[in-house]
Amino acid sequence: MTDNQSEINWKRNVWIVWFAVFMTGVAFSEILPFMSLYIDTLGHFSKTELTFYSGAAFAVNFLVSAIVSPIWGKIADKKGRKLMMMRAALGLAITLFLMGFTQNVWELLALRATQGALGGFVSNANALVATQTPKDHVGRSLGIVVTGFTGGQLIGPLFGGAMAEVVSYQTLFHLTGFILLIVFFFIWFLIEERPMAAPKVSETGTPITWKTLPKKSLLVSIFITTMLIQTVNMSINPIVSLFVREVVHNGHNVTFIAGVVAAMPGLATVIFAPVFGRLGDRIGTKYMIQVGFLIAILAFVPTAFVTSVVMLVALRFVVGISDSTMLPAIQSLLTRAAPEGMVSRIFSYNQSFQSIGSVMGPMLGVAIASVFDYRAIFIISAIIVAANSLLFYFNVNRKYDLN
């Protein structure tokens, strides 16, 4: 541990960041269950129009975030990750609060795009923990951060759905903005960050940029790995309730069961991510990722043939276990591969690829379901995971020693 690391309470940092990303996960996800219903109150739309605008409201956030995230990452490397977390929290608080005042769907879409443009909170949270934590504790610490955001995303829809029964949609947007304002003050007063280090220089003595970045092919391979993981994770989202209805043969409680099925991967991630993050620190992060690929394949293939809800719930839980092995490990690999003066930028690029996967996944799921059927989504997902595993093995495992 360096002197600088001993000057700050990095353990407290981890738990404050955990709380911040947990509340952010709640804020982001609590509005999703009623987004289409809220859009329906903003005009008189046909079923096709409502579906289109609902999809657009979901996608525009991720598309803009994918474009803008690297810009915020570059600024974070110069000005500090804490400042960028505060900027994102305050900007998102204002944006979400204003969504409660929208008068038409175009205003809502503009604010959703603004939400994406002001993002970068989670990527900078990861970068802050990665740079302020001793190297031999990075995996476990990032695993803890993963559980915070994932846990918030699990609780958010339940909280949002319950509150929507009590208050108006507009009030819930205002409440969400208030939650992020609380996050802003928590970061401001409680997070510690060491002074920014001088930018690393290349062998020629000039500051390292993306063009002169060492191990560029390694980082691109990790970005693609992240994108494909997110693609298969999100592919089931548009049809989860329809698939559950098929499995239960139009039985009762389809909505409730679909919610349980959707929650299983996140629940497993909350339970296992810190454990596997700590294990990755001990045995090697890139090996944990390969194990995650194998577990995912073993989960996706049988899911295509499930005949009961119990089997479906169990296999979706296993998908979450695979995420638990991969997500903290990927963040740790990024930390090891990124020069100190570019950590936030590298995490932001990774966030951009993850956002692209968040858009590609639902589109892929809908396309496969339209051409084949719901079950084919899981077979195609297994094939994508297998291809991802081979890409990672040949471009990372065999070429680099980062453990």
Automatic annotation (TrEMBL):
InterPro entries from the xrefs? MFS (IPR011701), MFS_dom (IPR020846), MFS_trans_sf (IPR036259), Tet-R_TetA/multi-R_MdtG-like (IPR001958)
> What keywords tag this UniProt record?
Cell membrane, Membrane, Transmembrane, Transmembrane helix, Transport
The record gives the membrane topology as: Multi-pass membrane protein
Query: What sections of the protein cross the membrane?
Result: 15-39, 51-72, 84-103, 109-129, 141-160, 172-191, 218-236, 256-279, 291-319, 374-394
Instruction: List where this protein forms a coiled coil.
Output: none
MF terms (GO), sorted A to Z: transmembrane transporter activity
What is this protein identified as? Major facilitator superfamily permease
Q: Which organism is it from?
A: Fructobacillus ficulneus
Organism lineage reads as: Bacteria, Bacillati, Bacillota, Bacilli, Lactobacillales
